[in-house]
Amino acid sequence: MSKPLKQIHLAAHFPGVNNTTVWSDPQAGSHIEFSSFVHFAQTAERAKFDFLFLAEGLRLREQGGKIYDLDVVGRPDTFTVLAALAAVTDHLGLTGTINSTFNEPYEVARQFASLDHLSGGRSAWNVVTSWDAFTGENFRRGGFLPQDERYSRAKEFLATTQELFDSWRGDEIVADQATGVFLRDAKAGAFVHQGQHFDIQGQFNVPRSPQGRPVIFQAGDSDEGREFAASSADAIFSRYAALEEGQAFYTDVKNRLAKYGRRHDQLLILPAASFALGDTDAEAEELAREVRRQQVSGATAIKHLEFVWNRDLSSYDPEGPLPDIDPDVSENHISKGRAQVRMYRDPLATAREWRELAAANNWSIRDLVINTGNRQTFVGSPQTVAKTINEYVQADASDGFILVPHITPGGLDVFADKVVPLLQEQGVFRTDYEGPTLRDHLGLAHPDEAPEQRVAS
Fold it and tell me: Could you report the per-residue pLDDT of 85-94, keeping only the tens digit for each?
């Protein structure tokens, strides 16, 4: 007997400030003006997506003492944008990245509980950490937290916010016998938390929200991050969108759930995925090549190489050969606040590998960056892309995908119009929303209806 088809989960990442976006395209628009967010969100909702996702940047990134080119127009505040989008959407989930290293549990819990009320139960929190002292300089605790303690704080941070969300559970309304006025039980909202990182008490002033608690996402790929997700998250973002890598990640994380008393369906795994669509597979391949060249200008190629070399390479020709000098492996890095710095753990080994690739393929610096950078996850006609996405999900490489188009804000339109209907025809994606909350979209139980899945503080 064949197992039933899994239903695919789809979400959309507003591309804004990242290396995916092609700002040189005439269709590219602002990632600050609210109209861009409205267009993107309403497209995702029209396609019946589960949620929209906004990343967060707490400081403008720098390289060689200058603001990185993608950051020059700034980054809007996550909560402000999501709250505004709640007013122009009816069903779409609203997911935001909020850092647990530079915030306080009471403030974050209050903001997410408020967003959940404003949206009718559609909020979600992507819990992230930061060891980056450069970013921390913006905060009063700038860079104070050692890297090995960041997950300890994050676990206690999440546990504390859950205590705040749950502090309104079981509240009662009682009538004063003398006046007839209805009053809330004084215990509603009361909390006390004493731990390594937080020692707080009082009364939480936002009543229990439609979802009970916002949906919790986590994005760490380290062993600590995977354990954190298995113990306490409702979904985990994955960077493994290829079939075999995705299956290995999926199996590893799902197998960690049992030790926390959780079932496989209580944690969704959702990789980020870019795409290039054409009327034919050949047309899509040509578009994908063109997009990759647009994403990597000559200046961008040099900046990318500087991540690894940790040197000023502005005198090098991006259409010429790689530098013959070795990377500088000192602790003082040329790039500040960029995730790519942490991706290359062994710069000398990376440089050797890249020189060999460039020599074997006669690649210039720009050619190398184009060919070793992230390629589109799904390339092909709508039929090919729909078929591939379904195959990956049914093969347990993921539970769905968070789509990252290369154009802001209209890049999602073609996927919504041409791929989603094919998935719906296959019976693996909804034709309408079945409930009002994000938990309904994701198939997750309300916290009051399921056993507690808490992280011990």
Answer: 999 999 999 9
